[in-house]
Design goal:
With 218 residues, the chain is mainly α. The chain contains 8 helices and 4 strands; from the N terminus they run E-H-H-E-H-H-H-E-E-H-H-H.
């Protein structure tokens, strides 16, 4: 059953990350058990008005973040401990969310172009972007030193405000040694998705992202 979501709850990042943490822990031993754990957020689709930055490259099924190379994005997310430096919340890389959608295409929907009504709101609440500290339009480089990890929703909210009305960005959130953005489970979820559910990405998509994060398929 589809459930339309028009606004994200205040604790959306914590809520969705907790559920998906438990889901990915269960997937290797029992997809059915993982589906039961997913049930509280199953079938949700985003119907709100946020606008995603970046573009979708043809055949890539992922979005670039204002001319930032994928390898650099992975480096920034790893450096920042998969935490949003604006709100301090947990992030899960979009590629890992896509792997979960591969296993549960109906319960955890995904569409590369983020058309309203086709994407689970967790993509807005959790997927990180590598945002420029000094804006690209203002001469800022796309080197890791000028990039920081922001939730897609935080980046959108930040960009929609005038500079003088922005709340102060969080200081660098304390490193959470227990949180790795579900990276340690990524390969297992991809493997299950090869035989269960429906693929949402081009061949080589997940293996390329695993390499960027210094991982491989199990």
């Amino acid at each position: 059953m589809t459930r339309e979501i028009h606004a994200l709850r205040d604790d959306a990042a914590a809520w969705y990350s907790d559920v998906l943490d438990a889901v990915t822990a269960a997937i290797p031993s029992s997809v059915d058990r993982a589906r039961q754990i997913l049930e509280p957020i199953s079938g949700e689709v985003w119907m709100g008005s946020l606008t995603l930055h970046g573009v979708t490259a043809p055949g890539n099924n992922d979005r670039t973040s204002r001319r930032v190379a994928d390898r650099t994005r992975a480096e920034v997310f790893l450096r920042d401990g998969f935490l949003c430096t604006y709100c301090g919340g947990r992030t899960i890389p979009r590629c890992i969310l896509v792997a979960i959608s591969d296993v549960f295409p109906d319960e955890f929907p995904y569409y590369a172009h983020y058309r309203r009504g086709t994407v689970h709101p967790a993509y807005w609440a959790l997927a990180p972007e590598a945002d420029h500290v000094l804006a690209h339009a203002g001469g800022g480089s796309s080197d890791p030193q000028n990039l920081t990890t922001l939730h897609a929703m935080c980046n959108t909210r930040k960009s929609s405000l005038a500079a003088d009305s922005l709340p102060l960005a969080s200081s660098m959130p304390a490193h959470d040694p227990e949180w790795d953005g579900l990276l340690s489970r990524y390969a297992d979820v991809v493997t299950i998705g090869e035989t269960t559910g429906r693929r949402h990405s081009s061949p080589g998509y997940h293996s390329s992202w695993l390499r960027r994060f210094g991982r491989g398929l199990s």
